[in-house]
Specification:
D-Maltodextrin-Binding Protein, domain 2, alpha/beta, 325 residues, 11 strands, 19% strand
Length: 325
């Protein structure tokens, strides 16, 4: 009888303890946050918003997007890196944040390659050089160069802040063509493009995802794309290589990070959900409509890919003479 009673009590205690143990081991158990370190409406924002709802379905918890723009993405990045390493706050960022920002914002307390674990790439896209056809009446890159040389120091180009892809490409354009232009920083793609359309800035190496609609509407004119090949959404727009500048074969890519100290099991759960979500054809189709491509690097190759590509962008940034701000 005593043995039977002890057995029953042990079994009962086991039943009581099992749900608590399961809850402790299950991630996630509450909503998650995805920080976008740029203004709403730009490609970093647009791409991840295609993913968060199906990602929430895979994780069983909601995923809320929070835009924290500033310092070329560093404001939001630092907040995530220095936050809790529990997997509940992720960052969707750009290759520039990983590779270029350490040049612009050197700080012993923060280094993105050290302080983050990149758990997935999401998408890639070219930039497209656009102008306002009513203000800057040019039809080709050659025309733009001629126009720029006719007004030394007077040309302006929009950026998303120091170290952003429009800033780097604009600086490269000046170095390779010998023109002079003044960078005008904005908090993201949407406000920068708005000012090109409004005639307040001359040109922009914009993300093709945000410019496509305005190109089709005729409010901006596309002169060239920065990818190795023409993009299907704008087949009549030549590449910078076709315009005579092979060094412009730079494709911008995006990725999801968590703080480096995030537990391996949590990283594995997030990775699995992200890769499953990105495998859906609807994600690839939605990206393609805006000129972007799905970028899924196999998990076994991810670390090497991020290191190799980041080194390439760092080299470009150094070649154009980017200095600490």
């Amino acid at each position: 009888m005593n043995i039977s009673r002890r057995a029953v009590m042990a079994a009962g205690l086991g039943l009581l303890a099992t749900p608590k143990l399961a809850r402790a081991q299950t991630f996630p158990v509450r909503p998650l946050k995805m920080v976008v370190p740029f203004a709403a409406g730009g490609p970093t924002d647009f791409i991840i918003r295609l993913l968060v709802d199906p990602l929430a379905g895979n994780l069983g918890q909601s995923v809320v997007v929070e835009n924290r723009a500033g310092a070329a993405g560093n404001l939001g990045a630092v907040a995530v890196a220095q936050g809790d390493a529990d997997g509940y706050t992720m960052l969707h960022s750009t290759v520039a944040m990983l590779a270029v920002n350490p040049i612009l914002y050197p700080a012993p307390s923060f280094n993105p390659m050290r302080d983050f674990n990149t758990i997935a790439t999401t998408a890639s896209l070219p930039n497209v050089l656009v102008v306002n056809p009513k203000v800057t009446d040019v039809s080709s890159v050659a025309d733009l160069i001629t126009f720029a040389k006719s007004k030394p120091g007077g040309l302006t180009y929009a950026t998303f802040g120091a170290g952003s892809s429009p800033h780097i490409l604009g600086a490269m354009f000046q170095k390779l063509t010998g023109i002079e232009a003044v960078p005008v920083p904005y908090r993201g793609s949407a406000p920068a493009l708005t000012d090109v359309i409004g005639g307040r800035v001359d040109m922009l190496f914009d993300s093709i995802t945000t410019s496509t609609e305005q190109i089709n509407a005729g409010t901006v004119r596309a002169l060239a794309v920065t990818s190795a090949e023409r993009v299907s959404q704008q087949p009549n727009v030549p590449t910078m290589k076709e315009a005579g500048f092979a060094g412009f074969d730079l494709t911008f890519w995006f990725s999801v990070q968590v703080p480096a100290a995030t537990p391996e099991a949590t990283v594995a759960r997030l990775q699995s959900a992200l890769y499953d979500t990105m495998a859906q054809q609807s994600f690839a189709d939605a990206l393609q409509l805006r000129g972007a491509e799905r970028l899924v690097v196999p998990r076994a190759e991810l670390k090497d890919y991020v290191a190799r590509e980041s080194e390439r962008w760092t080299r470009v940034a150094n070649e154009i003479g980017l200095k600490p701000l």
